[in-house]
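Lecture notes, unit on protein representations.

Consider one protein chain, 102 amino acids long.
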Amino acid sequence: MYQAYQATTQLRDETSLDASDEFEGLGDASRYCPTELLGTFTLLMAGHGRCVSADVMLGDRDYALWQLARAHTMADEQLRAVAVRLFSYFDDPRGWGAALHA
């Protein structure tokens, strides 16, 4: 019985958060789309009569790129600037904004 406990404890220790300190991928928080910027985008689009779903943008890359392209067709420099900033998060198929820090 003690050997089973010891094996379980060893397995738990190997998979603990302390054991993950050496994992290099954890520090890349840049992969997440900034929700405040996305919210600004949806509000600016709404100001032009365009309903945009932030949830769908986060879940469907093609939809997001389509909405960003639509924003570039409008005569609103602020909207275009926000769309350009957001584009870098959706343009990289490997993950959110990974191209920004490559």
